[in-house]
Amino acid sequence: MGKNYVDIEDDQGRTLRYRKHVNGRGLIANGAKVHASALVEAGAYIEPGVQIAAGAHIGRGVWIEPDAVIGPDAEIAPHAHIGSGAAIGSGAKIGVRAVVGARARVAGGSLIGDDIQIADGEQVATDQRGLRLAA
């Protein structure tokens, strides 16, 4: 039986330990909180301070930077990137290869399409078709 963790060296030469999430085998850094019912697929990286709520689905190759918050039942499609301190609302859907910048906010129920970029600090709300709503 293989070990249930991986050690990875960061850009500053520090070694960070990631454990494999029981539901999907994605890598979860020490200090991150991931609900047991969330699915974190293999190949996803969840950094320290991240919070992932019940029922969230994190796809393969997703990178969630420190202190981001992923709401209940949110779906992050493969290879998306969620910036440091970003917040994804309940039931929001983030598309394949989408980038949500640092400290950005995506409202609950929003749909962010494939290859879309949300700027650092931007606040976005869309309808279920992905059309942006007035602020």
From TrEMBL:
<dbReference type="InterPro" id="IPR050179">
    <property type="entry name" value="Trans_hexapeptide_repeat"/>
</dbReference>
<dbReference type="Pfam" id="PF00132">
    <property type="entry name" value="Hexapep"/>
</dbReference>
<dbReference type="InterPro" id="IPR001451">
    <property type="entry name" value="Hexapep"/>
</dbReference>
<keyword id="KW-0677">Repeat</keyword>
<dbReference type="GO" id="GO:0016740">
    <property type="term" value="F:transferase activity"/>
</dbReference>
<dbReference type="InterPro" id="IPR011004">
    <property type="entry name" value="Trimer_LpxA-like_sf"/>
</dbReference>
<protein>
    <recommendedName>
        <fullName>Transferase</fullName>
    </recommendedName>
</protein>
<dbReference type="InterPro" id="IPR018357">
    <property type="entry name" value="Hexapep_transf_CS"/>
</dbReference>
<keyword id="KW-0808">Transferase</keyword>
